[in-house]
């Protein structure tokens, strides 16, 4: 994900962060820890305020580090698109389209499908876009059968 403050404010990014995971759990390793990174003093201040607000809201200690951003490291290939890879017939079809691991990792279509498999996404948007994500008819069927979206009527949108 690339953060563009012209599109999403840091405050919006923080709201998405808090709503996407349970920051009250201690991580079993440093690489899986909960952390917020900042690049400016204002972001550091906002992150600290957001952490305090989250602790107050939950009534629990939040185990999230607030640290200066020093660089980004892409996770190993076996960590990429984890949820999608739990449906082998989908993953294998997409590996055939994107045989280079970097292309698989960087594909917008694969990222969208991974998000949908994880249960994140609007069924109406999916309905309009499933045909454009590169899956064969059997791949689309497997996707619908193995996700919550199978209960939604998905069909191609007429132009």
What would your notes on this structure say?
The protein is elongated. The protein folds into two domains: 59 residues, no CATH class; 75 residues, no CATH class. Helix 1 runs parallel beside helix 2. A two-stranded parallel ribbon has the order 1-2. With 159 residues, the chain is mainly alpha-helical. The chain is 47% helix and 6% strand. Strand 1, helix 2 and strand 2 form a beta-alpha-beta unit.
Task: Write out key terms for the chains shown.
159 residues, mainly alpha, two-stranded parallel ribbon
- Please state how the strands of the largest beta sheet are arranged side by side: 1-2
Count of discrete domains: 2
Report the count of strand segments. Answer: 2
What global shape is seen? elongated
Helix content: 40-55%
- What structural category arises from helix and sheet content? mainly alpha
In this structure, how is the largest beta sheet organized?
A: 2 strands, parallel
Distance between the termini: 30 Å
Query: How do the SSEs run, as a string of H and E?
Result: HEHEHHHHHH
Mean pLDDT over the full residue set:
87
Give the count of helical stretches. Answer: 8
The oligomeric state of the chains shown is single chain
**What ranges have pLDDT less than 50 throughout 5 or more consecutive residues?**
153-159
Percentage beta strand: 5-15%
